[in-house]
């Protein structure tokens, strides 16, 4: 009989595959991921300078899909014309483009420039509505502010709040707005009890899997670059936290991923 844990297939919905250790080593990295059941990977951008590179990666490798956006963590680097560059790229309707991202809010920085972050976010949410695309959202210490902006923007395709580590009520607020919750390596740390308990209680229909590789290292891999094949270990931890069977969890998350991004394993 087939072991459902071993047979599970995955989409890593958040991996910065345009960065080391993957850049220049793409084929071998994809082989490693495929061997662990990863069938597709979504690559979000952080800046306009990387749009073309990520689109070319997605066109070159069948497993890769692109998301284009301006990451709030790099607010000091973004230029006024970058929104126009994003709009021009979206207008071409690239074949492997599945979302606008990584976008959002970050209040963890020394100088967050919040007003400018919000302005940039609003502009990108407007583009998501215009081009009928979901969004991949970054949020650090900004869940309540982000939920407020999403409520006002009313993006039809909604999106995912990636790498979520907020409270149960904050997660429920995003889900009520139609957004998914990205489950990543944080849950592999036993000390992350709050996040583990939240993910255990959320409806399975609201969850997606991700690594945020090469960031967000899993427990046991501290100090090492994260990798997309480790989404399997995120899944295995999720199965330990949830009441459903591994087969049910794996199937539900694939259905969620396909519903949001139009990608199936």
UniProtKB/TrEMBL annotation:
<keyword id="KW-0378">Hydrolase</keyword>
<comment type="similarity">
    <text>Belongs to the metallo-dependent hydrolases superfamily. TatD-type hydrolase family.</text>
</comment>
<feature type="binding site">
    <location>
        <position position="16"/>
    </location>
    <ligand>
        <name>a divalent metal cation 1</name>
    </ligand>
</feature>
<feature type="binding site">
    <location>
        <position position="102"/>
    </location>
    <ligand>
        <name>a divalent metal cation 1</name>
    </ligand>
</feature>
<dbReference type="InterPro" id="IPR001130">
    <property type="entry name" value="TatD-like"/>
</dbReference>
<dbReference type="GO" id="GO:0005829">
    <property type="term" value="C:cytosol"/>
</dbReference>
<feature type="binding site">
    <location>
        <position position="212"/>
    </location>
    <ligand>
        <name>a divalent metal cation 1</name>
    </ligand>
</feature>
<dbReference type="InterPro" id="IPR032466">
    <property type="entry name" value="Metal_Hydrolase"/>
</dbReference>
<dbReference type="Pfam" id="PF01026">
    <property type="entry name" value="TatD_DNase"/>
</dbReference>
<feature type="binding site">
    <location>
        <position position="14"/>
    </location>
    <ligand>
        <name>a divalent metal cation 1</name>
    </ligand>
</feature>
<dbReference type="InterPro" id="IPR018228">
    <property type="entry name" value="DNase_TatD-rel_CS"/>
</dbReference>
<keyword id="KW-0479">Metal-binding</keyword>
<feature type="binding site">
    <location>
        <position position="138"/>
    </location>
    <ligand>
        <name>a divalent metal cation 2</name>
    </ligand>
</feature>
<feature type="binding site">
    <location>
        <position position="162"/>
    </location>
    <ligand>
        <name>a divalent metal cation 2</name>
    </ligand>
</feature>
<dbReference type="GO" id="GO:0016788">
    <property type="term" value="F:hydrolase activity, acting on ester bonds"/>
</dbReference>
<protein>
    <submittedName>
        <fullName>Deoxyribonuclease</fullName>
        <ecNumber>3.1.21.-</ecNumber>
    </submittedName>
</protein>
<dbReference type="GO" id="GO:0046872">
    <property type="term" value="F:metal ion binding"/>
</dbReference>
